Amino acid sequence: MSDSAQQQRPRLAVVVMGVSGTGKSSVASGLAGLLGVPWVDGDDLHVPEAVARMRAGLPLADDDRWPWLDRIGACLTDRTAAPGGVVVACSALKRAYRDRLRGAVPDLGFVFLDGPPALIRQRLEARRNHYMPSTLLDSQLQTLEKPDADEPDVLHADIGAPLALIVASTGAQLLQRANAAFMKAPA
């Protein structure tokens, strides 16, 4: 996206969410390219101790996640590093986690990647060089509070669809929502 086109549209802050193995990094990267903004893998914002816990097959507790979510919120609001916006891949499994991010970024948009557990497990088991073992999928699925209609800032995407279609569809919807909000904003 050109610099002039970025200046004419509102700043975009987007979280691509879901359990591990749903394709958050791939979709976030694709959306960032489509929207002309950088993307950040939320996994890179975990402290080494949290990564070690997950690598050992131990799920994180809420107390482990709050500081991580605050780092993600800071990343989402950093206009110096990302003046046009940013896309972050982050599990955001619980409503309370999404609400914490919304507290940092009131105009935040979410893309929820969802699909059958068997497909997600298959993807996790095929993945190499990642610290998140497939054994933690059940824990993530138990923790997941799927967004409902009372979270209208969340777009839903089926991971069974081709990556390019997920990116194109959600990208168009995110731009449409951002532009509609921009038009309603007071001058």
Structural summary, described in words:
The structure is a single chain. The chain is α/β, with parallel strands linked by helices. The protein has a single domain, classed as P-loop containing nucleotide triphosphate hydrolases (Rossmann fold, 3-Layer(aba) Sandwich). The chain has a five-stranded parallel β-sheet, with helices on both faces. The chain is globular. The two termini are about 25 Å apart. The relative contact order is 0.22.
Quaternary structure of the protein: single chain
Q: How would a crystallographer describe the biggest sheet?
A: 5 strands, parallel
What's the CATH class label? Alpha Beta
Distance between the termini: 24 Å
Count of distinct structural domains = 1
- Corresponding CATH superfamily: P-loop containing nucleotide triphosphate hydrolases
Give the total of beta strands.
5
Order of helices and strands: HEHEHHEHEHHEH
Rg calculated over all Cα atoms: 16 Å
Relevant terms:
alpha/beta, 187 residues, 48% helix, five-stranded parallel beta sheet, Rossmann fold
Give the topology:
Elements: H1 3-7, E1 12-17, H2 24-35, E2 39-41, H3 48-55, H4 62-77, E3 85-89, H5 95-104, E4 109-114, H6 117-126, H7 137-143, E5 154-158, H8 163-184
Parallel strand pairs: 1-3, 1-4, 2-3, 4-5
Helix pairs in contact: 2-8, 4-5
Describe the structure in brief.
Helix content is 48%, strand content 13%.
